[in-house]
UniProtKB/TrEMBL annotation:
It comes from Campylobacter insulaenigrae. Residues 8-198 form the YjeF N-terminal domain. This is Bifunctional NAD(P)H-hydrate repair enzyme. Keywords: ATP-binding, Isomerase, Lyase, Metal-binding, Multifunctional enzyme, NAD, NADP, Nucleotide-binding, Potassium. Its EC number is 4.2.1.136, 5.1.99.6. PANTHER family: ATP-DEPENDENT (S)-NAD(P)H-HYDRATE DEHYDRATASE (PTHR12592:SF0), ATP-DEPENDENT (S)-NAD(P)H-HYDRATE DEHYDRATASE FAMILY MEMBER (PTHR12592). It comes from the Bacteria. Transmembrane segments: none annotated. InterPro entries: Carbohydrate_kinase_pred_CS (IPR017953), CARKD (IPR000631), Nnr (IPR030677), Ribokinase-like (IPR029056), YjeF_N_dom (IPR004443), YjeF_N_dom_sf (IPR036652).
């Protein structure tokens, strides 16, 4: 897991408390940036490298990197300069380094590095810089952002192939709106690893995945009996996903099923280890059934249209899985608040935190970067892709979560690992993304 924070301030303060000062952190950041550029430059013959510099500490990191690279050019924008930046620029000038005096032809460069503003910007870029970044974004150059693409979250933004986060990943980079601009996120150290850094937000990686394990003495009863309350088509997908992900038994509450692997039941019995409910389901009165109070639940889809959902939100063994539109319904039910989808997408962390600070259940806010939240804890998965933008993907996820609940995973652990596995299957799919569907997603679970 990789630590996430809203900004660098608290993280850098802890590093200072451990003995690092601002100059050492800047030197380490610049060296790491230079090493990464050198690594990427190997695929070019005599790579032409260009640094775009503002005048603050983010640009100072770039100046350190320039010192450690033999052949690179730098263009400085006319912004107010920090003391650190001025010192570093003087060091370079003393070595005879010459900065470009006018805007270069960006198409002539193989690698372009954004060291203009970093993560501290809170307003639109000025018009001239916007025009410049539009030209940069149109080039075929490999684009690297130092710490944070300049302009992220505003009208025009540097569009990076890689973003090198210095010491810690910034929350803003994991908002859905940022996904197409940050490229691949790489974390680089500033000199010390803070194992005790005070954060409860983390980015999950493939190596964090934990699956149901079987041994030679296992029997189906060890892995739970999952009940699915859904329409026949959606319920079949949910049930098959639960089976493929490790559930021992799966029963569908329906008159018929599209698969002989699923048992049919007329109601939920006390032997249920977990229940997945809501996918295509029309009669939501079942949410008031007393038996549900005793069983871990996954609530999805149509559940967010019913006030009966409120009966289960203050339970720590319940997982809810809304997409942004369903989340707007949830906020209206919970807070009598009308929030538009586009507002949620601009501030997903804010709204996830707002909900989780009040309710005990686990929230899975689906999206390009899915957020999993329970009280103050937040986890993000950013390895999914556009292949999952198909009907049925959410039904499969509900079945996967239910399977882990049935195998005695806690609600939070079930949500984390199911969402991560769900994303990794899509990531591993190496054919045309348009051809991906829910059945291929279920089939792909065997490759984990």
């Amino acid at each position: 897991m990789i630590a996430i924070c809203k900004d660098n301030t608290k993280f850098e303060q802890e590093l200072c408390n451990k003995g690092l000062d601002e100059l050492i952190m800047m030197e380490n950041a610049g060296i790491e940036l230079a090493n990464f550029i050198l690594k990427k430059s190997k695929k070019f013959k005599n790579a032409k490298i260009l640094f775009l510099l503002g005048g603050r500490n983010n640009a100072a990191d770039g100046l350190v990197a320039i010192r450690h690279l033999k052949n690179s050019k730098a263009y400085c924008f006319n912004y107010k300069q920090s003391e650190l930046f001025q010192k570093q620029i003087q060091i370079l000038k003393n070595t005879g380094y010459k900065f470009l005096k006018k805007e270069p032809k960006f198409k002539h460069f193989d690698i372009i590095i954004d060291c203009i503003f970093g993560s501290g910007l809170n307003k639109n870029l000025d018009e001239n810089l916007q025009k410049t970044l539009l030209k940069v974004n149109r080039t075929k150059a490999l684009k690297i952002a130092c710490d944070c693409p300049s302009g992220i979250g505003f009208d025009i933004c540097f569009k990076a192939d890689f973003t090198l986060c210095m010491g810690v990943v910034k929350e803003r980079l994991l908002e859905d709106f940022a996904k197409e601009y940050v490229g691949k996120i790489k974390l680089v150290p500033l000199g010390l690893q803070l194992k005790s850094f005070a954060t409860q937000s983390f980015l999950l990686q493939a190596k964090d995945l934990k699956l149901i394990t079987r041994n030679v003495t296992s029997n189906k009863g060890n892995f739970g009996h999952i009940y699915v309350c859904a329409s026949e088509s959606a319920g079949t997908l949910t049930g098959l996903a639960a089976l493929e992900f490790g559930a021992g038994l799966v029963s569908l509450i329906a008159r018929s099923s599209y698969s002989p692997l699923l048992m049919l039941k007329s109601n939920i019995n006390k032997d249920a280890s977990a229940v997945a409910l809501g996918m295509g389901l029309e009669n939501l009165e079942i949410l008031k059934d007393e038996i549900l109070k005793q069983i871990p639940l996954v609530l999805d889809a149509n559940c967010f249209q019913s006030e009966n959902l409120l009966l289960h939100l203050n339970r720590s063994d319940v997982i809810i899985t809304p997409h942004p539109k369903e989340f707007t319904n949830l906020l209206r039910l919970c807070f009598s608040e009308e929030v538009k989808v586009e507002d949620i997408q601009k501030k997903r962390f804010f709204y996830a935190s707002k909900f989780s600070s009040v309710y005990d259940c686990v929230l899975v806010l689906k999206g390009a970067n899915t957020i999993i939240a329970q009280k103050e804890k937040k986890y993000v998965i950013n390895c999914g892709n556009e292949a999952l933008a198909k009907g049925g993907s959410g039904d499969v996820l509900s079945g996967m979560i239910a399977a882990l609940l049935g195998a005695k995973f806690s609600a939070l652990e079930a949500a984390k690992n199911a969402v991560l596995a769900h994303a990794l299957v899509a990531k591993k799919y190496n054919k045309n993304k348009n051809s991906f569907d829910a059945l291929k997603l279920i089939k792909g679970l065997k490759c984990l």
